[in-house]
Amino acid sequence: AGQSAFDCSGLTSWTYLRHGFALPRTAQQQYSFIAARGHINHNLNTLRPGDLVFFSPSGSPNNIVHVGIALGNGKMIHAARPGVGVVIGNIYAGFIGGGRP
């Protein structure tokens, strides 16, 4: 698969699997998986590079619609939307938490 073939959770799943760790498939499932282990951090300023970053437009942990990978300095890599591909951008409004398994 090329970089334009990923959706957001496909990118995070693929990246973590390349480092030996299998994640659930959807952004919501990935959030729930990490939250169940007590590893969700709600403070943007204490994220570490490699942490998954989750987004919910409603602010609800039951409505996770996007996930990316923190790079540091308020940046993330993510599959923005179909047709755009994998990009580096700012962690934006709707951030609800981040962490790693």
CATH architecture: Alpha-Beta Complex
| CATH superfamily heading | endopeptidase domain like (from Nostoc punctiforme)
Q: Helix/strand-derived class?
A: alpha+beta
Can you write the helix and strand succession as a string? HHEEEEE
What CATH calls the topology is: endopeptidase fold (from Nostoc punctiforme)
Number of domains: 1
CATH classification class: Alpha Beta
Binned, the helix content reads 10-25%
Number of strands: 5
* Low-confidence runs of at least 5 consecutive residues: none
> pLDDT average, as an integer?
93
Q: Any idea what the radius of gyration is?
A: 12 Å
Protein described:
The chain has 101 residues and is α+β, with helices and mostly antiparallel strands. The protein has a single domain, classed as endopeptidase domain like (from Nostoc punctiforme) (endopeptidase fold (from Nostoc punctiforme)), CATH 3.90.1720. The chain contains two helices and five strands; from the N terminus they run H-H-E-E-E-E-E. The chain has helices at residues 8-18, 27-36, and strands spanning 52-55, 66-72, 75-79, 86-90, 95-99. It has a five-stranded antiparallel beta sheet. The longest helix is centred in the first third of the chain and has 11 residues, at 8-18. The N and C termini lie far apart (25 Å). The model has no long low-confidence stretch (mean pLDDT 93).
